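Thread: quick sanity check before group meeting

JM: Hey all, I'm pulling together slides for Thursday and realized we never actually wrote out the predicted structure for the chain we discussed last week. Dropping the sequence here so it's in one place. If anyone has concerns about the input, flag it before I start.
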Amino acid sequence: MVTLLLFGVLRDRIGCRELAIPVQGSTQLGALLDLAERRAPGLRQAMAGCQAAVAVNADLVADLERTVADGDEVALLPPFSGGSAESEVPVLPRPGVRIQSGEFSLDAEMHRVKTQSGRIGAVVAFTGTVRDCSHGREVLGIEVELYPAMVMKRLEALRVEAVRTHALLAATIIVRQGRLDIGDDLILILVAAEHRHEAFLAARWCIDEIKRSVPIWKRELTPDGWRWVDHGC
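JM (edit): ok, ran it. Output follows.
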C-alpha cells in the first residue's frame, strides 16, 4: 500500500487529504498516479493545472519513472505559498527546528539561543505576523497547512546551511500550523553570530529560502469566505 497525500488547493479540488493505493511489489510513480486517477478522476488535470510537484518519502522527485513500493509515502505539492487543517503526521524533533500549533515566546527562545555560546555578539530575530490585509483584500484570519516530515527536513537543512555559510554560532527556526488570528506570529527565525553583519544576512537568507522551498500553504479567511493564497493554482 502506498499512501498518497494531497495538500492545499489540490486537496480541495479532489476532495480528500489522502488516498491509499494498493501496489504489488513496486511500480513506477507515473503508473501509481494512473491508479490514483481511477480513484480520484481529474487528479492528473488538477496536478497539471497548478503545476504540482511530487515528493516521495519527503524528498522532491522530478522523474515519474521513479520506482515506489509498498509502505512508501507520495505527496502531491502545489506551489508553496510560504506560509488548513493541522496534519497528524508524526515527525521527530530536530535541534533548533520546531513545528507547533501554539504561540512561542520570543524571550524564552532568545535566552535559549544566547546561552549556546559566549562568543555571541549579535542576535537577529525575524517574526512573520498575520496581517489584516492581503493584496488589497480584508483578511480575518488564516489557516496554515504544511507537510511536517518534509518541512522538518527542509528547515533543518536550511538551518545547517545558514550556520555554515554565515559563520553563525546558533540558529533556531519555529513554524506554526493551524488556525491563526490577526496579529499572531506565524514564524520565528533567530540567528546568532559574533557580528551583526553576518546575523542580518543570515536572517534574510533563511526567510527567503523558506518562502522559496519549504512546503507551507496558507488559506485566508475573508468577508467572502476562505481562499487559498494565490501561488500559481
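AS: nice. The mean pLDDT is 89. The first helix runs from residue 8 to 14.
JM: adding both to the slides.
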